[in-house]
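Q: Structure tokens for this one, please.
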Amino acid sequence: MSEADELLDQARTRLKEAEALLQAGLYEGAVSRSYYAAFSAARAMLAADGTRTKTHRGVIQQFGKSFVRSGMAEVRLGRGLAQLHRRRELADYGTGHAIVKAEADSSVALATDMVQAAARYIGQ
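A: Here is the predicted structure, written as tokens:
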């Protein structure tokens, strides 16, 4: 199994976790796992092209350069990945702001779109 395939499997697992947490009303956890699903999906797409990055910011930036700017991925996915990163930091480390259901819902929806885009790109 290729690295891209392994990362896509990881993204799918993290998406299932996000969905379960959303159903349980655990919105911070759902946002966090949604980000990691989208992040793994982006890494899978980059790996399929032989690109590796060392940081979360690096993955987000390289995804934008390699896929969004080239038109191979929708702009909303690039922006959404960055937004999920900010939400995840707020969910995991923030104080004074509770993640609400609407944020968790949109996070899971965006992660779903990212995983589907990666599956199409990789051919799974």
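A few notes: The mean pLDDT is 95. The domain at 3-122 is CATH 1.20.120.330 (Four Helix Bundle (Hemerythrin (Met), subunit A)).
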